[in-house]
Specification:
- One of its GO terms (biological process) is DNA-templated transcription.
- This protein has five domains: 32 residues, CD2-Gal4, CATH 4.10.240.10; 55 residues, no CATH class; 98 residues, no CATH class; 195 residues, no CATH class; 288 residues.
- Helix content is 62%, strand content 1%.
- Helix 29 packs parallel to helix 31.
- It is globular.
- The relative contact order is 0.07.
Length: 751
């Protein structure tokens, strides 16, 4: 009996030891709580790696239903809970649509179309409201227009945030201005002190805020300011250039509206790019002759499309929601349709229209299409002769001299547009313009003094030597071309970093010499035409870009050296590259401070309703430089008095510069899709760099949340705008850090 008990005990002991050994073995090899979808379906072993070894061997996408250490049952429960919450939210939204008034239902529908999340919509329309929350579509529209007016205005970041928070504070008895009062700022500069005055008047208050920090330039009296909203429309009727709509446009026959758009284009866009010769284009448009060599339906529709992006006229908006970023889309679609019908033959107006449509595409964050139009314009430019026969000119009622002038202007427009855009978007050139038998500028153009009027924001006439400007701009474009060649030809020639840096120094010296010898008529000194703003902004933007590329090349070289077997010489070489990279960033920061000062000057004088292309590029590059400064990782706490003092002082530190650039970028984002996307990219880059935004910047992001970015905006992007913080001239690596790719990644990860 005892023998049987001993055998039984031995058996039990062995079973226990076997179980213990099995548990130890399992613990050693790791317990896989959940397999990937492929291994589960095929019933094969999965090592739970992400991706697992089985999927890697079979070159398959490896997907898991689980997250982290979840089991399949836990994942199923989580998915069930998520679906239940989503179902409840959509049921609430459906119930809300079924029971709310028609006006509210229409507002909810617009929110759905804008891409707002169902939960956010339900929360806004069902949560209890205090007396200050906008509960009706009209109240929300007034609030939105008020904030948009502030963003467009001349106020600094600190002034704008303080006025907005004061106006929207539920504990104060502040009444927002109504639509007629806010329409006083239509197509005019929204001076911050004027916005405050209207806000005080609507609230029945007489005591103003504490002194705003606006500079004397922004505080100057607006003698043309009106108190009747009907006069705002009459300002549009006082356009500089009267032109007919027919027979050029099929969308509208409103001469007043087209006159407004053409005058705006000739005031703010054409002086910098010289798409058309103003007098010849107006002559052709007013002739109503479709055979005119200086005007065509394609050209006029292109002009109206890009002008709409800077206009608040009713003709600019598509549909009834008055979405600012889609303005002019109807003219753009018509221009593209006409272009598709006019493929055969080469004309002057086709070259001009394609250059305009390319710039228009960039504004709309569709630059991949825009960059494809410019090579076509270059090809047409190469095919079109500079001279036409006397008989051809006589049949069309133009002189040979006028045609050569318009033709040469289009030639340089296409070349400068091609170079500037390829450098701005860091793309290699795919077309080569002709360089022989090109007439000299001084032999074709007269050195006249033109008058520039900042329509519709001002009636003051500013003298401008347009031929002198054209000559200097073409000279600068030649330097830009050499910079582009250095950046992109370097990878083909396998030039070492030292030789590349020598080239950077040579080209920087050339740019500085060009800048120092600029004639006094083209100096950065008020009063000046918008073209001179563009000239100086291009100089700063390209200078910063060149230094950023040099910095990033040095960092790449230092990283490659550090990965090699260590030796004292290689360690010294890596340290030298790091120091050179830091020096490049320091020089770029000095230019960024000047860029921020220029942005402040423009904002205080004109506001941000009209945003020329150079303004966008300057904001994007300067923000990319500033966000790399480690000083921004610790943000000083400033008092209101210090903010006021800083607004009167030259910008000399990264904190003040970044606040100014970011304020202008968010203000421009109300108007232009590409600025909206760039602001989003800079914000996420700041998070990656662990930058601490100032209190005012964070407050502005909250205030402008409805206009700064919407999830649906991602579907409108077709952009390859580069991330200048990492750009190096390597198209493959730069493309992986492009605007569209970065935003898609951040949206997917819900950053």
């Amino acid at each position: 009996m005892s023998g049987q008990e001993d055998a039984s005990d031995t058996l039990l002991r062995r079973v226990s030891e076997a179980k213990t050994q099995l548990a130890v073995t399992r613990a050693q090899r790791g317990v896989v709580t959940a397999a990937c979808n492929y291994c589960r379906v095929k019933k094969v072993k999965c090592d739970a790696q992400r991706p697992c070894s089985t999927c890697v061997k079979r070159n398959l996408d490896c997907h898991y239903e689980t997250t982290g250490s979840e089991t399949h049952s836990q994942a199923s429960k989580r998915k069930h809970d998520e679906l239940s919450r989503s179902h409840d939210t959509h049921a609430q939204l459906f119930q809300l649509l079924a029971t709310c008034p028609g006006t509210t239902a229409a507002d909810i529908y617009q929110r759905i179309r804008a891409g707002d999340r169902p939960g956010d919509i339900v929360a806004q329309f069902t949560q209890p409201h205090d007396g200050r929350a906008p509960t009706t579509p009209v109240q929300r529209a007034v609030r939105q227009l008020f904030l948009t007016t502030l963003a467009h205005g001349t106020g600094s970041l600190f002034d704008m945030v303080r006025l907005a928070m004061w106006a929207l504070d539920p504990t104060l008895n502040i009444q927002l201005p109504d639509f007629p009062d806010l329409l006083l700022f239509r197509n005019r500069v929204a001076h911050i002190h004027r916005v405050e005055a209207i806000l005080l008047r609507s609230s029945g208050l007489t005591t103003p805020l504490s002194a705003l920090s606006t500079s004397p330039v922004a505080q100057r009296a607006d003698s043309g300011f009106v108190t009747d909203s009907s006069d705002c429309v009459s300002r549009e009727n006082r356009a500089v250039h009267q032109v007919p709509a027919s027979p050029w446009l099929a969308i509208t026959d409103n001469d007043e509206a087209v006159t407004h758009l053409v005058s705006l284009f000739l005031a703010w866009i054409n002086p910098s790019w010289r798409f058309v010769e103003q007098d010849l284009f107006l002559q052709g448009m007013r002739s109503r002759a479709l055979e005119s060599p200086f005007c065509s339906p394609l050209l006029v529709n292109s002009i109206c499309a890009i002008a709409c992006l800077h206009s608040e006229h009713d003709i600019a908006f598509v549909g009834g929601d008055r979405d600012r970023v889609t303005r002019g889309q109807h003219f753009r679609n018509q221009a593209l349709r006409l272009w598709s019908l006019e493929q055969s033959g080469t004309t002057l107006t086709k070259i001009q229209a394609l250059c305009i449509l390319s710039l228009d595409s960039n504004y709309r964050a569709m630059d991949k299409q825009g960059l494809g139009l410019i090579p076509i314009a270059i090809q047409l430019n190469n095919e079109l002769p500079f001279h036409s026969s006397s008989a051809w000119c006589v049949r069309r009622g133009v002189s040979e001299q006028d045609y050569v002038r318009a033709r040469l202007a289009a030639h340089w427009c296409a070349i400068c547009t091609h170079i500037i855009m390829r450098l701005a978007f860091m793309n290699d050139m795919t077309a080569r313009p002709i360089e022989s038998d090109v007439p000299k500028i001084h032999k074709v153009f007269q050195d006249d003094v033109d008058l520039w009027i900042a329509y519709p924001l001002s009636i003051d006439a500013v003298p401008h030597r347009s031929t002198l400007y054209l000559r200097e701009r073409c000279t600068l474009a030649g330097i830009f071309k050499d910079i582009h060649t250095l950046i992109f030809a370097d990878k083909h020639k396998k030039t070492n970093v030292r030789e590349f840096l020598d080239g950077v120094d040579r080209l920087s010296s050339r740019m500085n010499n060009w800048f120092e010898r600029l004639p006094f008529e083209l100096q950065y000194e008020w009063p000046m035409c918008v073209a001179i703003w563009e000239l100086h902004a291009s100089y700063l933007s390209t200078g910063m870009t060149l230094r950023l590329v040099a910095r990033n090349r040095c960092l790449q070289e230092a990283e490659e050296v550090e990965q090699q077997p260590s030796s004292p010489d290689e360690s010294d070489a890596a340290d030298a590259m790091q120091r050179t990279a830091h020096d490049g960033l320091t020089r770029a920061l000095a230019l960024a401070y000047k860029a921020a000062q220029m942005l402040r000057d423009f904002r205080e004088r004109y506001g941000l309703k009209i945003t020329p292309a150079w303004l966008l590029q300057l904001q994007a590059v300067a923000a990319s430089v500033l966000v790399l400064d480690k000083d921004l990782k610790v943000h000083p706490i400033s008092t209101p008095d210090e903010h006021v003092a800083a607004s009167h002082s030259p910008i000399a530190n990264s904190h003040t510069a970044f606040d100014e650039v970011f304020r202008c970028l968010l203000g421009t984002a109300v108007e232009v899709m590409i600025a909206r996307a760039i602001a989003r990219m800079i914000y996420h880059t700041a998070l990656e760099q662990k930058i601490i935004l100032s209190r005012s910047s964070r407050a502005m992001l909250q205030i402008m949340a409805e206009t700064a970015w919407r999830p649906s905006d991602l579907s409108l992007l077709n952009s390859a705008f580069p991330d200048f913080t990492t750009v190096s001239g390597d198209e493959e690596s730069d493309a992986s850090r492009g605007l569209g790719e970065l935003l898609s990644k951040w949206e997917k990860t819900d950053v």
